[in-house]
Description:
Low-confidence stretches: 1-33
Radius of gyration: 23 Å
Largest sheet: 5 strands, mixed
Amino acid sequence: MLKKSAALITCLMLALSLLVGCSGSDNAAGTAGNEEIEINVLSATMRLDAMVDGWEEMIAKFEEENPGVKVNLEMQEWEAIPQYLAQARMAGEQIDIIRTTGGQIRSTLAPAGALMELSEVVEPIKDRFEEGTLDVYNVGGYQWGIPYSETTVSCVYYNKTMFDELGLEEPKTLDELQHCADVIREEKRIAKPWIHQGAILGYWQMFFEETYAQTSHNESIAKAEDWLSGNSSFVNDETIEAFAMIGELFERGILTKDSLNTDDTGMKALFAQQEAAMFYGGTWEYAPVLEIVGDTFEVGVFMFPEMADGLVPQGSGAADDGIAVASNCNKEHADMVVKFLEFMTRPENAQLTIGATEPILPVIKGVEAVDMPCAEELMSFVPQNIMYIDWMLPAEINDALGNAIAGVASGEVTPEQAAQSVQDAYETVVREKDYSYDWYNDWTEEQWAAVELKAG
């Protein structure tokens, strides 16, 4: 996922924070003087035409069931959504429903007061969600959104046909991965055994999460929370070793510096053209890769390998895209907004929207899971899943972490320097932006009143 610059996101969060709590007649600007009620949905751009079609069909059904209600769907790139919300608020324009990434909901929009708190709204429909999927949208005991996609999990994709031809097994350890890379380079004359979409900053954080999970002895999330709460430093043996492990993949030639300038499109093209035999990603990559590869070769998956003796691999993942209610929603029609949330989470309606993504692990019960060759193996990775670490971090720290990892991969930054740069970013955001990981404990009664969704 692409990241906006730290400065831009910080400014946007500030603008949203200044605007939160401004409610009243301007929220009804979209409906004043009109006979019909309007619900405005702001969605991150959908990657498949079938998703758009599914949403439009679901909306049409809702409008048919609720005469006099008009649902407007507008799409923006996900990273532009904070800015769009701020601009809409300043213009007195109504936004009701937001569809974006869980990370943006947790780390940017909720702390900025841009979302309504949904605990009471979700309670009657919580049994519709697969176990545990609501949890990643709960921060501090408050529900800031709902999952509305599939549970994702990270993995390494590989050319199974090539591996079988060369007598290679799925690697479980770093040494086994090294062996595979060496054989592929020698026997197939492939210079890039493993290609990574390193031009996309957000994929480096996922890479780091794989190694940090192991060096922290599977306590990476708890230790990150302790650090973000100001109780420890990011400069420690475990984070330094996690950076070093990424550097080692490049030093060994398993990954090459070509990855630093390769985006997701280029990565998939190199893989499909068999100029690379492996790449790292998540379940969302599977259907597009199968489409581009076609019948050329069989695609397999394996978990990120054990990087040293005695370490236990964990994948990263979560119930990915989600739905939230904007704090500049039309509060006069809160009942209809809540009704729309209830409607869209009915299994038959979620089938139109979530089902269009061909989910392997849909988050809503009753939505059909797609039958793909590696689906069962991918599902077996889920118990080892831990939440994306970048979902916990403010934009400034996320950018610092991504740049630090890329710096280690390029050989321009030492692991120690990388860890220090992330710690420096944390101290800067605390000092200059008054950052608090437990932001919800610092809110005033007025701030809480502004995000209370009163329906019924």
